[in-house]
Amino acid sequence: MGYVAVKGGTKAIEASIERLKYERLKDEEILEVNTILATMKAMIDQVMSESSLYSPYLAALAIKQAEGSMEEAVFLMRAHRSTLPRLYYSQTVEAESMLVERRISASFKDIPGGQLLGATRDYTHRLLDFQLIDEDQSDNEQWLRDYKDKLAATRAQNEVQYFPKVVDYLREEGLFEKYEKNNTDPDDITKQSLQFPASRSAKLQVLTRGQTGAVTSLGYASLRGYGQVHPNVGEVRVGNLPIYVAHPNEMEQDEENEFYIGEIRVTEVESFVPVTVKNEQNESELEFEIGYGICYGQNETKAIAMSILDQCLEHPEAEFPTHDEEFVLLHIDSVESTGFISHLKLPHYVTFQSKLDSVRQVKGGDKDEN
Amino acid sequence: MKTNTHFAFFDEGSKKEIRRAILKAVAIPGYQVPFASREMPIARGWGTGGLQITLSIIGKQDVLKVIDQGADESVNAVSIKKLVQATTGVELTERTGESSIIQSRHRIPEIALTEGQILVLQVPMPEPLRQYEAKEYKTKILHSEEDYSGAWLMLFEQIMKYGKTATGADHPVYVNNRYVMAPSPIPRFDNPKMHQSEALILLGAGREKKIYAVPPYTDVASLAFDDYPFTVESFKGKHCHLCGATNVFMDELIDHLNGETIYQCNDTSYCLERLNMDEEVEAEGEYV
Asked: Which UniProt keywords apply (chain A) (predicted)?
C-alpha cells in the first residue's frame, strides 16, 4: 500500500476526447471525404495554401476531421507534413506555362491574349439561394448535359494557347526596370528558420503560407494609410502549373530528362506599384515596381494582399508596421498565432505564484531587507 | 493514402537536423541556435520545442517523465506523454530518479538530477532581451557584442521604481560567463539548480524556432547587483500540508473547509515519494 496521487489528468483528458467524438457524431450524419472534395473547393484551396501541402484529398480529410474549423484543419495538415521525408526540389516553374482558366487585368482593357473571366463570384449577387435546400441530383445532371451541349457548339482551338505576361508588354516600353533573373537556389524556410534581414525568397514563402485573414488584413492596412503601397492589379491568373523534377543522380542537366510529377492549381498576381526613382541626372522619376503574389488554389484576395505586402517589405524604410519584415512575417502564420493564443489556457500556477511573490515583496515594502 | 507513423513521429532526416542544432547548442552554452522547427501534432506554445528535442534524442531504452508546472498529472503533460509513448513505446515514469529524460514546463524537479539524465525545458520566449528590443535582427547583434546593458538597466529601473528587483519567473541568467539566457519561466527558486548541474539541460522553443543548452558542470549565475543580491520566492515559515516539506517551491491553496491559506509541494512526485517513505517507515515500525 502507498499513497496514490490524485489522478485526474489522464481520465479527464480521455473523457474530454470522448465528448469531442460524441459532439461530432451525435446528429448522426456522415460527410464523405469525396463530398468535401467535390463541393468545398474554396475551403480545400485555403487549407492547402496555409498548410503548404498540396493534397486536395488530405485537405478534405482534415476538413472532415476538424469539423470545418480552418485553423484546426491547417494544424492537422502541417503536423502531417512534419512526418514526410523531403525528397526533391522541383525545377523552376515558369508561370507562362500555366494552363490558364481565368486571367484578368485591372490595368489594361486590351491585354495581349485578352481577358478571360473563367469561374468567379465577383459578378454574382450574394443573396442566399433557397433553391439549394432542395437541390436534386437529376436536375443537376440535366443542367450539366445542357451546359456540355452549349460548349460543344463553341469551336475550340486546336492549339494550346499560352498567355504572355501583361508586364512583358510594359517592360518593352521601359516603364519597368529590367532585372537579371535571380536563379540562385531559394532559401527553404521549412528547412532553416527565418533569419533577418530575410531574403526575398524566404519572405515570399512566409507570405504564401500566411493565414488568409491575416495576410488580407495587413494588405488592407497598407491601403488604408498604414503603409505606402497602393497597387494597380496588373494581372491575376488562375490555372494549373506543371511541376518537373530533375533526376537526383544525373550530372547532366537536360530538360528532356526531367520528370513530370503532376500539376498544381495556383492563383498568381502581379501588382503594379508606382515608385519614385532617381535617374542618372539625379532627377526624380516615376517608375513601376512589381508586387508579387502567389498561392495554392483559387484565392485571389490572398494573392493580391500578398502582392501588396511583398512590395511593402521591399521598401523597409517606410515608417509603418506593414513595411516591417519582423512585424509582418512573424505574425501571419496560422499555426503559430493560434497555438500561442490558445496556450494561455494552460495552467500558469508556478509563474503566477512567482509574480505574486514579487508583487507582495514590493507591496510589503521591506526595502531594508536588501 | 494511409501512412504509418515512424518511430518517434519524425522522419530520420528531421531528427538528424534537430540533433545537429542540439550539438551546436551544447558547444556554445547559452547561445540560441536557430533551427527549422517542425509543426507538431500539439499546438505551438504547448511545448513543441521541448517535444521536438525529446523526440529527436529518445531511444527505445529511455525512461521518460513529463511534468507541467510541477505536476505529472497535468492535462498537457499527460497529452505529451501519450504522444511520445504512442510513437516510441518507451517506458514512462513519474519518479524523477528513475527517468533518463525529463521534459518539463516551468519547473526543475526538487530532487537533484544526476549525470546521464537530460532535462528538456519547454520555452515560450527564448529571447531574454525581447522586453526592451522587439527586433530579432538587433537582439542577435546585442548578443554577439555581449552588450547586455539593457538587461542590467531593466533590473536597475525596477530597483528605482520599487526599491528592489521585481522579476517573476524567467529571471535572466549569465551562462558560462558569456551569454545572457532566458532560463524559461522557471521560478527564481529553480535558477540556482542550473548552476553546475550534473544533468544536461536542453531548452527548446518551437514557435520561436530556437534550441539552446546548459551543458553539465557549467556556471549559471542569475543577473543581480552586488548591493541588491538575487532573491528567490520566499516560503519562509511555510511547510507542505501533506508531507511537511520545507525549502521547496510551493503552491498556495485555499482550504475549502476553513477558508485558510495552505501550502503544498508544487513538485507532485517529490511530495508523493516523501509520503510513501513516511508510510514505509511507519509500517516497518509496527513490526518491531
From this structure: Lyase
Report the number of distinct structural domains present in chain A.
2
Measured between CB atoms, which of B72, B79, B234 is closest to A357?
Answer: B234
List the single residue in B with minimal CA-CA distance to A76.
Answer: B41
- pLDDT at residue A370 in the model: 42
pLDDT digits (tens, 9 = 90+) for B26-61: 999 999 999 999 999 999 999 999 999 999 999 999
One domain for residues A189 and A257 = yes
* Set of chain A residues whose Cβ sits within 8 Å of the Cβ of B8: none
Q: Do B11 and A85 touch (CB under 8 A)?
A: yes
pLDDT at site A175:
78
Partner-chain contact A336 B107, CB within 8 Å:
no
Q: Tens digits of per-residue pLDDT, B263-272?
A: 999 999 999 9
Instruction: List the single residue in A with minimal CA-CA distance to B252.
Output: A353
Indicate which residue of B50, B70, B206, B265 is catalytic. B265
Query: Do residues A305 and A220 lie in contact, with contact meaning Cβ atoms separated by under 8 Å?
Result: yes
The one catalytic residue among B47, B204, B206, B243: B243
Q: In this structure, are A37 and A108 located in the same domain? A: no
Question: What does pTM read for this prediction?
Answer: 0.87
With contact defined as beta carbons under 8 Å apart, do B130 and B210 qualify? no
Q: How far is CA A157 from CA A98, A101, A164, A242, in A?
A: 17, 15, 17, 21
Task: Supply φ then ψ for residue B211, to 5 degrees.
Answer: -125, 135
CB A73 within 8 A of CB A65: yes
Cβ separation A362–B163 shorter than 8 A: yes
- Specify whether A60 is located in the same domain as A101: no
B285 catalytically annotated: no
- Look at residue A19 and tell me if it is in a domain: yes
Q: Is residue A78 part of a domain?
A: yes
> Does the annotation mark B240 as catalytic?
yes
Domain B12-127+173-220 has CATH 3.40.50.2300: no
Query: Which pLDDT value is given to residue A368?
Result: 46
DSSP assignment letter at A243: E
From the candidates B47, B50, B206, B240, which is the catalytic residue?
A: B240
Residue with cell 517506458: B91
Please indicate whether residue B271 is annotated as part of the active site: yes
For chain B, where do the domains classified as CATH 3.40.50.11310 start and end?
12-127+173-220
Q: Which residue of B has its CA nearest to A339?
A: B44
**Which ranges of chain B have pLDDT less than 50?**
none
Question: Quick one: which of B218, A77, B75 has its CA closest to B203?
Answer: B218
